[in-house]
Design brief:
The chain is mainly α. It has three helices and no strands. The chain has one domain. Helix 1 packs across helix 2. It is globular and about 30 Å long.
Length: 60
């Protein structure tokens, strides 16, 4: 996350309430907004585990 309270945090690690706040208030323009909207959808629908295989690749 390039700005705000969670600056430096991976978008995939942002808390659901923060993502929901963006959904209510509006996502920023550009790629960051698209990524935040996608992560909010994943979180809202309980699909965060879909990111686990990607995390394992990054950790190696």
């Amino acid at each position: 996350m390039p700005f705000g309270k969670h600056k430096g945090c991976l978008i995939a690690d942002l808390p659901g309430n923060y993502l929901n706040w963006f959904a209510r208030e509006g996502f920023p323009p550009g790629e960051i907004g698209r990524l935040l909207a996608l992560m909010q959808e994943l979180d809202h629908n309980g699909l965060r585990p879909l990111l686990d295989p990607l995390r394992k690749k990054v950790e190696k």
